[in-house]
Design brief:
The protein has 11 helices and no strands. By secondary structure, the chain is mainly alpha-helical. It has one domain. Helix 8 runs parallel beside helix 11.
Length: 168
C-alpha cells in the first residue's frame, strides 16, 4: 500500500502543474528547478519519494504527459530513453515503465526542463535547441547526448554556461 507522500507522486497526473503554468512560472523568474517533475505530470517534488517510485517504475501516464508537454514524438522519446517500440507497446498495456526506463525518462525531463528555463519558458525554442547540433557539444545533438548520464551532465553544464553568458 502506498504511503500518502508516495501516492502523490506515483502515477498522478498534475491538475495544476500544466505546461502553461510551468511556462508562466519560468517567465516570471520563479526558477524552482523542479519543472522537470511537472513535465512528467507529477504533483510534488520530494526527492526520496520520487526515487522510490523511479525504482518501482513510473506510470505510463508520465511518458504520455512528457510527450504532450514537450511535443516530442513518442518515437523520439522512446529512442531517447532507449525503449524499443515493441517494449513501449507492452509498457503501455502494463501501465508502467521499468525502473531503468523511468530513470531515463526523469533524466530526459530534467534536461528539457533546464532548456525551458534557458529559453524563458519557450517550449518550441527549447525543443529546437535540444534537437539541433550544438557546436559547443562538438556538433552533437543535446537530446542524443543526453541518452547517457555523462552526456546529460555535459548538456546541463552547457545550459548553465549559456545562462551565465560564459563562452562555450
Amino acid at each position: 500500500m502506498a504511503r500518502p507522500a508516495e501516492a502523490s507522486v506515483l502515477g498522478t497526473v498534475a491538475g495544476t502543474a500544466d505546461l502553461t503554468e510551468i511556462q508562466s512560472r519560468i517567465r516570471s523568474g520563479r526558477t524552482e528547478g523542479h519543472y522537470y517533475v511537472a513535465l512528467l505530470g507529477l504533483r510534488t517534488y520530494q526527492p526520496l519519494a520520487l526515487d522510490r517510485h523511479v525504482r518501482k517504475g513510473l506510470a505510463y501516464s508520465s511518458f504520455l504527459r512528457f510527450q504532450r508537454n514537450t511535443s516530442l514524438s513518442a518515437r523520439a522519446i522512446a529512442e531517447l530513453i532507449q525503449i524499443p517500440t515493441r517494449t513501449l507497446t507492452r509498457r503501455k498495456s502494463e501501465g508502467k515503465l521499468a525502473p531503468e526506463e523511468s530513470d531515463r525518462l526523469v533524466r530526459a525531463s530534467r534536461i528539457f526542463g533546464r532548456a525551458m528555463e534557458l529559453f524563458e519558458g519557450d517550449t518550441d525554442a527549447a525543443r529546437t535547441w535540444l534537437t539541433s547540433p550544438q557546436p559547443a557539444l562538438g556538433g552533437l545533438v543535446p537530446l542524443e547526448l543526453a541518452r547517457t548520464d555523462v552526456g546529460a551532465n555535459e548538456v546541463e553544464n552547457l545550459i548553465g554556461r549559456l545562462e551565465y553568458g560564459i563562452p562555450s
